[in-house]
Amino acid sequence: MVARKSETFDIVDEEDRVIGQAPRTLCHGDPSLVHRAAHVLLFDSRDRLLLQKRSMDKDVQPGRWDTSVGGHLDPGEDYLAAACREMAEELGVKGVALTRLYPSRIRNGFESENVVTFLARYDGRVEFARDEIDEVRFWSAEEIEEGLGGEIFTPNFEEEWVRWRQWNRIYATNARGRTALCAGDAFPDLFGELRGKDPEG
């Protein structure tokens, strides 16, 4: 659905503690009202990232390509629940394991968001919300890199992409020449490497 103008968000402090509530119409336009959002990076088995093209009816960055899934938390909702809900609402994708990646902060002249990003692996059918998304497609890393700075993507996605690449260089493992993305609650292979022992041991 197109963004509901009557939405209410939890307002948080810099430690992400809830200190009040405010309507969406005030949060967007007042950077002092810090609120929460969840993002999902949805990759297919070819390591391509699904991006969504924001509807021209959106009040923020219409017509630009954005993160696979992104949405605000409902009052009292946690980040994981919001990520699952938004993935179902925006892409029709349900029951897919999510791995928590990293928190981040969006601070600009329009809004302030505390964000947690999750990772998912998915090759199934995508039935996106056509009243808020104009198009979806999978992009290779090379295609994304070529488009950066060209006003194709939202500024928030470009920041997200930089964070993802940094995280991936540090934490992802390499299996048979391709990135091994672990969808689930942990990265046992990574933790095994850090301990200097067999991950199954």
Report on the structure:
It is a single chain. This protein has 201 residues and is of the alpha+beta class. The protein has helices at 24-27, 79-91, 141-147, 155-171, 188-195; strands spanning 8-12, 18-23, 34-43, 49-54, 65-66, 69-72, 99-107, 112-121, 133-139, 173-175, 178-180. It has a four-stranded mixed β-sheet, covered by helices on one side. Residues 1-5 and 185-201 have low confidence and may be disordered.
Task: Tell me the layout of helices and strands.
Elements: E1 8-12, E2 18-23, H1 24-27, E3 34-43, E4 49-54, E5 65-66, E6 69-72, H2 79-91, E7 99-107, E8 112-121, E9 133-139, H3 141-147, H4 155-171, E10 173-175, E11 178-180, H5 188-195
Parallel strand pairs: 3-8
Antiparallel strand pairs: 1-2, 3-6, 4-5, 4-9, 7-8, 10-11
User: Which blocks of ≥5 consecutive residues have pLDDT under 50?
Assistant: 1-5, 185-201
Largest sheet: 4 strands, mixed
Query: Roughly what is the average pLDDT, rounded to an integer?
Result: 85
In the CATH hierarchy, what is the architecture at level 2? Alpha-Beta Complex
Give a brief outline of the structure.
With 201 residues, this protein is α+β, with helices and mostly antiparallel strands. The protein has 5 helices and 11 strands; from the N terminus they run E-E-H-E-E-E-E-H-E-E-E-H-H-E-E-H. Mean pLDDT is 85; it is low at 1-5 and 185-201.
